[in-house]
Here is the input.
Amino acid sequence: MIIVATLCLVLASLWRAVSVVADVQRIRRVDAHQRMYRPGLGWTTPHELELRQRAAWAGMGAAIGLVPIVVISASTVAAAAAIFCCGGIIAWLLYERTLHRARYTSVCISILASALLLYYAARLFTQLPAAYLTGMFASFFASQLYLVAGLRKLQSAQFMSGRVIVDNLAYGLYQAAAGNREFIRFASPPQLADLLASKKFLSACRLAALLTAALELTIGLGALGLLPALLVFSLAIPSHLAFIIVSPYRIAPFTVAALGLIAMAMSHPLLTAIL
Here is the structure.
């Protein structure tokens, strides 16, 4: 599972870093002042954009540095290099947080990087069972991510009404119709108008909201060790692939990082390891 988690961390970090660099380049093309408005944080400056791009390149380098470790992970040098690379990814994402509000993608990638850093550090510097320690660490944080997300959705009347899903689908379809390649165009604006006028569509979105919250709570409990690993993966993989429909370009790094974290969590779930 360590190899799977490492590959997930590499892919998620690279995707996230490439998207940041692409965003900066896009802003420079469309805005002569090189600015981007951030809710609650105001406008960026050209200097901030340059620093953000440099930090993304550093994060990209740290992710690429993990690739050979998958092949030579048993050596001491590989463990030391993995600690350095995981630390570099965490430092990059912490810097990103000073420019943008924390998001599930950055949080999930950071936790996965921290889990792998803990694994290699425990293996290199201690006699502790690194796999058990890392599995419990990943299990705790994976369960927290999913349980908190599921509970917040259940407590949100707006989400449970299905309106949030309707709004996200409508926004994505109109963005796709306008030429935004970050979104999938699976219906035309006239077809969307017919869907929005349909009570059955709203009922379907309401059911999807309920299933989403239930799935997240179930996966969270499974990450603790209360459910078989096969069942957890059979729920997590389709649900995350469904989330990608909203915006593949933006959500794919979160999906990959989350699945890597679940893989580590299910190797040695917290409750199973304790009991």
